[in-house]
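pls design
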């Protein structure tokens, strides 16, 4: 069964109807597709070829990309997730990050401009979308451009014997919002709907899939839904996806925006550190939105 994913036209986001669609999508589904955005299809294709290039390098070269923060750097296939590998870089931590990444992997300089331009463009797009999501709730005083973000690229090594197996387990994303350039040719992403049924998310070339994460849920005082999703092997094709993960406010404290908490007579969650949530997920192996229960105010 196919998931119904709302489509939001970025160019029309000043009009009432599109605005309403965005608000409803964040509140009801926690997922939407953005079309007519400013990132060109050429740049999206070039970035995809760069991602394929470094993920197809020999393992010993990929292993040179060292972890900068927990759960980052090159994440090789593990026995618990044998079909999944990722490369995570943390552009906000240091301006050196891109140079280090290129020299560690000995990447052709040709890709440098592509990755830099794409990284900046997708960060701008994610922060503009976050700004618009906030405005839907009447909040205009947050500068999301300042929020740290990660770029994560993923390769799923799917072969015939893997059909039906899990590429990535059911989870919610930890940050405020994820913008994903999904693989336009290889399916596999599934969304858990509110009746508990997993539905297929059909890729749409040239668009970005936007997914609200745990921080978005807490920041909005539960107005935005943190969508649960997973990737399953349906086709015997290597699958590549990538995107930007906008994390939490620069001070690392996750809490409801004061105005939204006030409107609801108080926050639904006690403030916590973003790094503590990440750490908790890594240590316990729990990847679902239920990780927030420990902070919930009864
Ligand atoms: O690869 C995909 O399509 C989804 C990736 C994802 O869910 C994630 O990285 O959190």
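designed seq:
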């Amino acid at each position: 069964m196919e998931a119904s994913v709302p489509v939001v036209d970025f160019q029309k986001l000043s009009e009432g109807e599109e605005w309403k669609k965005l608000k409803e999508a964040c509140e009801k589904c926690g997922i939407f597709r953005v079309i007519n955005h400013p990132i060109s299809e050429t740049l999206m294709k070039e970035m995809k070829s760069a991602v394929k290039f470094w993920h197809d390098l020999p393992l010993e070269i990929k292993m040179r990309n060292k972890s900068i923060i927990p759960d980052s750097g090159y994440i090789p296939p593990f026995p618990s997730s044998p079909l999944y590998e990722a490369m995570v870089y943390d552009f906000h931590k240091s301006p050196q990050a891109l140079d280090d990444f290129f020299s560690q992997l000995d990447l052709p300089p040709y890709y440098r401009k592509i990755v830099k331009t794409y990284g900046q463009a997708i960060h701008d797009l994610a922060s503009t979308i976050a700004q618009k999501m906030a405005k839907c709730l009447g909040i205009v005083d947050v500068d999301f451009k300042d929020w740290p973000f990660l770029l994560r690229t993923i390769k799923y090594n799917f072969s015939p014997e893997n059909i039906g197996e899990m590429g990535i387990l059911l989870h919610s994303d930890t940050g405020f919002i994820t913008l994903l350039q999904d693989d336009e040719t290889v399916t596999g992403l599934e969304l858990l709907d509110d009746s508990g049924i997993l539905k297929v998310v059909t890729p749409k070339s040239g668009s970005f899939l936007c997914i609200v994460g745990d921080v978005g849920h807490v920041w909005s005082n539960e107005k935005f839904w943190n969508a649960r999703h997973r990737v399953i092997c349906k086709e015997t094709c290597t699958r590549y996806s990538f995107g930007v993960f906008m994390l939490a406010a620069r001070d690392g404290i996750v809490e409801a925006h004061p105005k939204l908490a006030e409107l609801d007579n108080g926050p639904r969650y006690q403030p916590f550190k973003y790094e503590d949530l990440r750490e908790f997920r890594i240590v316990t192996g729990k990847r679902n939105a239920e990780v927030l229960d420990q902070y919930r105010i009864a």
